[in-house]
RNA sequence: CGCGGAGUAGAGCAGCUGGCAGCUCGUCGGGCUCAUAACCCGAAGGUCGGAGGUUCAAAUCCUCCCUCCGCAACCA
């Protein structure tokens, strides 16, 4: 048994309803980089990723494709795994929630919480979006009974369900967050979550009966476990359900759950409370990172701007793609992707600065010293200054990496690369050579080799295949004692080593040629923008709805609500108050006097404390909205 | 006055435990010749969102305001 300190890191388990994109790639590369770094620092690491395979959405997608869920997802999961291989991801385990080892643990834990009374049976009625796997109250729905998040139609559902007593743990959660200020990172997310919980937690509905693609509730098999409840358990089931279960004792609690900002709530509220209920120690940190935006826009299938990482790796190389992702994404922030930005990073940072540093250094050693790295002399003041920076770099770099500030760590490291390039200019080895100052020349070239060696060690977690190429060129291949974290000291490079100058590490990209061949992302098909048709209904159904022309007597914004307008309407002799969520589209004053169409016999609803008697008709398309008018008909006229 | 984050050179960002306003890219001029048309130096370009205040000194601390973003609320 090793007595090394352990480091357990996870990515979310990805939902295989579609193929992996660059956002998945970012999270997974980050986890891989962190794992390699911690391993280099001497930790006993464990890196888990996988797929979350249950839920109504996958069941439905599979049915549409005429396949069973497993037939549907297997090829997609193969694509995930193939991409991780391409990207050089070295995970220790890949868990699928359809595996027996996961199901068993998930069921055991569900049972345990039930037996201690924190899961109870009740009834749930509400509107459900299958796409988002989320229930909404009637009031939460968007116009036309659509999902407020994704805009797709929702379905009504009434279920006998099991509920998890989240509310019971709210105070304990707040105490935990107070005691562990680094649990949720970055801090802005932490504040957000605290704020959310302080407004009160509802019990969570954790079972479904309306479909069966999930893990059965052990004591009531007509229910399946809610997918999120099921999915979060993977972080534990992958350890407990494997081999003799000792992995759990060794690696739990997790050191880092790496997640996108969209699923922070599940990981920082629901998951910790599940663990509290189970009396299992909580993970040490949940890091919510930003999104990879495509040309400053959110990536989505309907926008047709999804980036396939495979294509980028093929075109620019895996190492460059990894470097770009880790360098461009600031701590907790979104980053922007365009092909130009990627190419600029490659040309500037990798080709011009780092790759070219190796190239010019080996070039001079070849030309001035017949390919031999000679022992350094005593050195000048400029040398000392450079070596001071070199000496302080590992500590600075480590501090940033430990804090998972990968972009800043790389930026810091590159100050050394830039300093080295300037050092060459100042020292002018070609002049030293001409003047026959062989000792000074040997010192400069030796220092450069050492800088390259140390930078290469530090950059290896991000670009793991680069070091071997550099060691080959420097003539120290297979000398592992020179290539690890403990070798980050100036002066270890063996004098009189023979170098092997080779091909450029990172070829420059011809930006102009690139522009010419770049295919523009296909625009989304127009048909996709039209909302799905509601199922057929009877004439009798339509006849129940009484539509009338109404005149707007008065209209103003509802206070403390940015979407709401309050109307006073004339319907024949009668006056009505109606609230409508169209403040984003109309100024109140421009509507006064208009003749609009109202659903006049709709059951009243209270919105923001105002009773609304009816609903104004409007048409919606592509983010725009227009009220229907009947300018020449009097108030009270019936629509037939 | 719901909570939080942000507003700094043409673009993207750092600085924000108060002490001459910085980095990368881009633009312009120069240098070098070891190197991947690379590298190095210099210049132009900012009233650090606005207005007050504290201080010998404010991008940095305090107050108010404006704008953008996230979360919440809201969507008959």
Based on secondary structure, the structural category is: alpha/beta
Assign an overall shape: elongated
- The percentage of residues in β strands lies in 15-25%
* Cα end-to-end separation: 81 Å
- C-alpha-based Rg, rounded: 31 Å
Profile the largest sheet: 6 strands, parallel
Mean pLDDT across every amino acid position = 87
**Strand order, biggest sheet?**
3-2-1-11-12-7
Report the uncertain regions: 520-529
Extended strand count: 25
Helix content: 40-55%
- Count of DSSP H/I helices: 21
Characterization of the model:
With 640 residues, the protein is an alpha/beta fold. Helix content is 41%, strand content 18%. The chain has 21 helices and 25 strands. The chain has a 6-stranded parallel beta sheet, sandwiched between helices. It has a 5-stranded antiparallel beta sheet with strand order 19-18-17-20-23. Strand 11 (256-260), helix 10 (264-278) and strand 12 form a beta-alpha-beta unit. Helix 12 crosses helix 13 (339-369) and helix 14 (381-402) packs parallel to helix 17. The radius of gyration is 31 Å and the shape is elongated. Residues 520-529 have low confidence and may be disordered. The structure holds one RNA strand of 76 nucleotides.
């Amino acid at each position: 048994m090793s007595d090394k300190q352990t480091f357990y890191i996870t990515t979310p388990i990805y939902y295989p309803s579609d193929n992996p994109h660059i956002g998945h790639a970012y999270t997974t590369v980050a986890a891989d980089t962190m794992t390699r770094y911690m391993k280099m620092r001497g930790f006993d690491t464990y890196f888990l990723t996988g797929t979350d395979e249950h839920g109504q959405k996958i069941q439905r997608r599979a049915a549409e494709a005429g396949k069973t869920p497993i037939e549907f997802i297997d090829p997609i999961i193969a694509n995930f795994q193939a991409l991780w291989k391409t990207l050089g991801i070295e995970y220790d385990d890949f868990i699928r929630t359809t595996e027996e080892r996961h199901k068993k643990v998930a069921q055991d834990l569900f049972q345990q919480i039930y037996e201690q009374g924190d899961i109870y049976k009740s009834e749930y009625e509400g509107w459900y979006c299958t796409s988002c796997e989320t229930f909404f109250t009637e009031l939460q729905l968007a116009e036309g009974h659509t999902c407020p998040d994704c805009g797709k139609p929702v379905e009504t559902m009434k279920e006998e369900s099991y509920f998890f007593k989240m509310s019971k743990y709210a105070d304990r959660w707040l105490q935990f967050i107070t005691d562990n200020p680094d649990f949720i990172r970055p801090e802005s997310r932490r504040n957000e979550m605290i704020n959310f919980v302080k407004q009160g937690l509802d019990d969570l509905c954790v079972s479904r009966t309306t479909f069966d693609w999930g893990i059965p509730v052990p004591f009531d098999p007509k229910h399946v476990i809610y997918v999120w409840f099921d999915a979060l358990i993977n972080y534990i089931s992958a350890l407990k359900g494997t081999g003799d279960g000792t992995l759990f004792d060794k690696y739990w609690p997790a050191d880092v759950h790496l997640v996108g900002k969209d699923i922070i709530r599940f990981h920082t509220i629901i998951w910790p409370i599940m663990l509290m209920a189970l009396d299992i120690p909580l993970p040490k940190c949940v890091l919510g990172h930003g999104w990879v935006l495509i040309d400053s826009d959110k990536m989505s299938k309907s926008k047709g701007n999804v980036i396939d990482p495979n294509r980028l790796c093929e075109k620019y190389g895996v190492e460059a793609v990894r470097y770009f992702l880790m360098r461009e994404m600031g701590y907790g922030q979104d980053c922007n992707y365009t092909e130009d930005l990627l190419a600029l990073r490659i040309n500037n940072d990798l080709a011009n600065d780092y790759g070219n540093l190796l190239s010019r250094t080996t070039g001079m050693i070849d030309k001035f010293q017949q390919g031999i790295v000679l022992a350094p002399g005593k050195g000048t003041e400029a040398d000392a200054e450079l070596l001071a920076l070199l000496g302080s770099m590992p500590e600075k770099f480590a501090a940033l990496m430990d804090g998972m500030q990968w972009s800043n760590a790389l930026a810091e490291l590159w100050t050394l690369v830039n300093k080295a390039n300037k050092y060459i200019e100042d020292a002018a080895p070609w002049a030293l050579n001409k003047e026959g100052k062989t000792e000074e020349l040997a010192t400069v070239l030796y220092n450069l080799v050492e800088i390259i060696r140390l930078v290469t060690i530090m950059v290896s977690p991000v670009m793991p295949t680069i070091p071997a190429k550099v060691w080959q060129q420097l003539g120290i291949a297979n000398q592992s004692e020179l290539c690890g974290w403990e070798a980050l000291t100036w002066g270890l490079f063996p004098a009189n080593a023979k170098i092997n100058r080779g091909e450029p590490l990172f070829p420059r990209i011809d930006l102009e040629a690139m522009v010419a061949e770049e295919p523009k992302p296909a625009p989304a098909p127009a048909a996709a923008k039209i909302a799905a048709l509601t199922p057929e209904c009877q004439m009798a159904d339509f006849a129940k709805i009484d539509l009338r022309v109404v005149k707007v007597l008065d209209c103003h914004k509802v206070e403390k609500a940015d979407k709401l307008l309050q109307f006073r309407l004339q319907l024949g002799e009668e006056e009505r108050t109606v609230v409508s969520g169209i403040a984003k589209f109309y100024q109140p004053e421009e509507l006064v006097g208009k003749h609009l169409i109202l659903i006049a016999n709709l059951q009243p609803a209270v919105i923001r404390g105002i009773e609304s008697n009816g609903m104004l008709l409007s048409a919606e398309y592509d983010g725009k909205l227009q009220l229907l008018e009947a300018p020449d008909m009097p108030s009270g006229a019936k629509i037939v």
